[in-house]
Every structure is written in structure tokens, then in C-alpha cells.
């Protein structure tokens, strides 16, 4: 069906097939120890009933990728944008040669759906009393993994292995990927795509506010920069929501300018975006002290102007 005119028009019971999502699987007796030394969150403290945001950085603290991390049988799965999988996979493998861990891109083994509404989840054969009730909580049902991804609304990610037959979903409204992108942006949730890989430390995308960083666990790749950014107050940038009542063709990596008196100056970078029929939502890294409702425009399309809106959580370090 056609993409809705506005985010507010979206059916509160719907499904979105997510072809842009990839999955890395780590197995082997040292998979938890190895991964804990690679990513920003505490893998050792992650239980089987929850997922966790995490960041994978280079040695300088710049992100290769952002993932949702969770247990699945004997494996640890990292679910993120397909670009993050492609960026992180060779880096993980490079450092895994001395560990008892197997690392594989298993994206082709899974189908991933974004689902809005408890009744829509029920179409997958999951009863309401089995649903995760809080953000990051997960449940398993007949080989499927159901992860709640928002406290603001009943939104879920459902991972279905290809070996498991899909239910008949014809009774649920199906939307395009742009709708899920807009919902993610409206919740202030970033990702890393090819155009932004290696550009930002986690705090510039608010990952500390999304509980993706442990400041008490042991060493991991990029830890020195991530810790210094927090304790020395070096971070001057954060992610904000941009909105326009016009359908704008913008993409991750696009440069932005902000209004300053009668001039425009360099402001930041688009992280992710979603264009619906008559509005555009984007998440962008901007100066942390930017005033809300400041006009922001695309450098290469100066006629396209956004308003800056806050993310729905505190970004205080």
C-alpha cells in the first residue's frame, strides 16, 4: 500500500518487513569474553531475557556499527543495519584469531519484521501474555525472538528463522520500510550506515543515554576515547530529531547547515532519515547546545529546511 501522508496516520497495528537489517552470530566457548572486549556494553552481564544496545568502535573510539545484542540458543546475535554488519564483521574476525569464537554473517538465515501493536504481534502466533512489557525485554516463541524496542509505544522487532514457516500476515496492515525508519527517528534511535561509519564516537549519537555504554567494565576497543569523552566533558555534539512538512530526498551522511543571524554555517550530519509522502523525519548529529526550532537546511539542497526537535529522553552525560 502507499506510504501514509503523515506519521500520525500510521495504523497502530501494522507490520514492516525490514530488508535493511543484518545479523552477526558469535558462537564458541569464548564468544561472550571475546565480544565483551570488543563492544561498549557489558556482554557478561546480559541475561537471556533482555537485549541491549551496543556500539562497536575502532581503536580511536569511532563507531563501525550500532547493534541490538541478545542471546539466541548458544549464540550471541548482533542485529543492526546491514551496513554495520558489513563494516564490523571483518573487524571482529581480525581480532578473533586467538579466541575460541566463530563469527558469521547469518543475515540470510533470518527474516526480520518491525511490528507495531500487540494485536499485530498476535498474528505471529504469540499470545499477549507472552509479550515483552518493557524496552529491551525479549521473549522466545517457536524459534522466533520478539524484542520490545520502545517504551513510548508497543513496538517490537520479530526475528524469524527461515526454517520456521511464516504465518499468514494478510490481516495486518503492511507498510514500507520508510515508516519504520520514521518511527525509529521519532524515538531518537540512531544507526550507523556506510556514509557515517568511522565518523562519530558513541556519545555523539546519544548512545550513553540509550544504555549502550558501560563505564565500569574492563577494556574494550576504543574505550580510552569513549571514557575521555565522558569524564573530560569533551563531547560537544549530540543527536537531534529533524522534521519537515515536505517530502525531502535526504540520506545518511548528508551535510547540514544552521541559521546564525543572517547567515548559514556548518552544523552537522544526517544519521538516518525517512521520507513519507508529505513529511520528512531525520536524525542528525548537531551541536549539543543548539536551540530547538532552529532552522537547519541541507547543504546541497539549501531550499530544504528542517526544524530541530528534542529526542524523547535525556542526553545529559
Count the helices. How many? 5
Distance between the termini: 42 Å
**Major β-sheet profile:** 6 strands, mixed
CATH architecture descriptor name of the largest domain: 2-Layer Sandwich
User: Roughly how much helix do the residues carry, as a percent range?
Assistant: 10-25%
The overall average pLDDT, rounded, is 94
Radius of gyration equals 19 Å
Q: Give unreliable regions as ranges.
A: none
User: What structural category do the secondary elements indicate?
Assistant: alpha+beta
CATH homologous superfamily heading of the largest domain: Probable tRNA modification gtpase trme, domain 1
Encode the helix/strand succession as letters: EEHEEEHEEHEEEEHHEEEEEE
Q: How many domain modules?
A: 2
> CATH first level of the largest domain: which class?
Alpha Beta
Please report the total strand number as a whole number.
17
Q: Proportion of β residues?
A: 25-35%
* CATH fold description of the largest domain: Gyrase A, domain 2
Strand order of the largest sheet: 8-9-10-7-1-11
Instruction: Estimate the global geometry from the Cα principal axes.
Output: globular
Amino acid at each position: 500500500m502507499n506510504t501514509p501522508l503523515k506519521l500520525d496516520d500510521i495504523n497502530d497495528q501494522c507490520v514492516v518487513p525490514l530488508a535493511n537489517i543484518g545479523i552477526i552470530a558469535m558462537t564458541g566457548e569464548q564468544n561472550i569474553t571475546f565480544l565483551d572486549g570488543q563492544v561498549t556494553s557489558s556482554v557478561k552481564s546480559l541475561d537471556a531475557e533482555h537485549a541491549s544496545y551496543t556500539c562497536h568502535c575502532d581503536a580511536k573510539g569511532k563507531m563501525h556499527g550500532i547493534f541490538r545484542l541478545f542471546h539466541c540458543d548458544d549464540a550471541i546475535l548482533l542485529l543492526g543495519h546491514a551496513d554495520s554488519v558489513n563494516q564490523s564483521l571483518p573487524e571482529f574476525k581480525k581480532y578473533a584469531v586467538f579466541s575460541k569464537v566463530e563469527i558469521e554473517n547469518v543475515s540470510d538465515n533470518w527474516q526480520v519484521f518491525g511490528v507495531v501493536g500487540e494485536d499485530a504481534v498476535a498474528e505471529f502466533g504469540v499470545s499477549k501474555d507472552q509479550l515483552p512489557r518493557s524496552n529491551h525485554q525479549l521473549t522466545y516463541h517457536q524459534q522466533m525472538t520478539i524484542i520490545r524496542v520502545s517504551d513510548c509505544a508497543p513496538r517490537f522487532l520479530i526475528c524469524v528463522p527461515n526454517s520456521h514457516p511464516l504465518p499468514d500476515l494478510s490481516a495486518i496492515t503492511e507498510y514500507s520500510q520508510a515508516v519504520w525508519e520514521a518511527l525509529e527517528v521519532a524515538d531518537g534511535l540512531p544507526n550507523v550506515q556506510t556514509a557515517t561509519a568511522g565518523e562519530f564516537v558513541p556519545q555523539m549519537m546519544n548512545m550513553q543515554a540509550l544504555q549502550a555504554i558501560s563505564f565500569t567494565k574492563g577494556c574494550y576497543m576504543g574505550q580510552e576515547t569513549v571514557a575521555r569523552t565522558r569524564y573530560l566533558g569533551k563531547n560537544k555534539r549530540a543527536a537531534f530529531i529533524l522534521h519537515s512538512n515536505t517530502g525531502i530526498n535526504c540520506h545518511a551522511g548528508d551535510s547540514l547547515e544552521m541559521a546564525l543571524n543572517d547567515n548559514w554555517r556548518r552544523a552537522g550530519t544526517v544519521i538516518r532519515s525517512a521520507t513519507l509522502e508529505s513529511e520528512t523525519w531525520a536524525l542528525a548529529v548537531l551541536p549539543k547546545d543548539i536551540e530547538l526550532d532552529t532552522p537547519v537546511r541541507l547543504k546541497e539542497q539549501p531550499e530544504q529546511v528542517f526544524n530541530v526537535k528534542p529526542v524523547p529522553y535525556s542526553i545529559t552525560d
